[in-house]
Amino acid sequence: MKNKAVKLAVLALAVIMSLTCAVSVSAEDAANKNVVYYFVDCGDADPTTVNDGDSLGAYNSVTDQFFGKDSKTGKEWGVVDKAVDTEGQANYGDKRVTTTWTWVDTPGDDADKGASNRFCHDMKENGLDRVITYKFELPENGEYTIEVGFANPWGIAIPADVYLNGAKAGTCASTDTPVVAKASSKDGYLTVEAKSDMDTINLAYIIISGAEIKADTDSDDTTGTADTTGNTGSTGGSGNDNPTETAPQTGFAVAALTAAAIGAGAYIVSKKRR
Question: How do residues 115-130 score in pLDDT, each as one tens digit?
Answer without folding.
Answer: 789 999 899 899 999 9
